[in-house]
Amino acid sequence: MDDRLAAINLSPFQLRNMLKTVVIIITEHFDIVFVNDAALAMLETGVKQIYDRKFYEFFLENGIERSTFEEALSNREDFNETEVQLCFKDGRCVLTDITATCFEAENERMMLLEIKQIDKQKKITQETIQHAQQKAARELVRGLAHEIKNPLGGIRGAAQLLEKELTNPEQKEFTQMIVDQSDRLRSLVDRLLGPNSLPQLRWTNIHEVIEKVRSVVFADTMHDIQIDRDYDVSIPDVYIDPDMLQQALLNIARNSMQALKTANTENARILFRTRIERQTVIKGKRHALSALISITDNGPGIPTELKDTVFYPMVTSKPNGSGLGLSIAQNLTNHHDGKIDVESFPGHTEFTLYLPIKKRRE
Question: Are the CB atoms for 100 and 73 separated by under 8 Å?
Answer without folding.
Answer: no
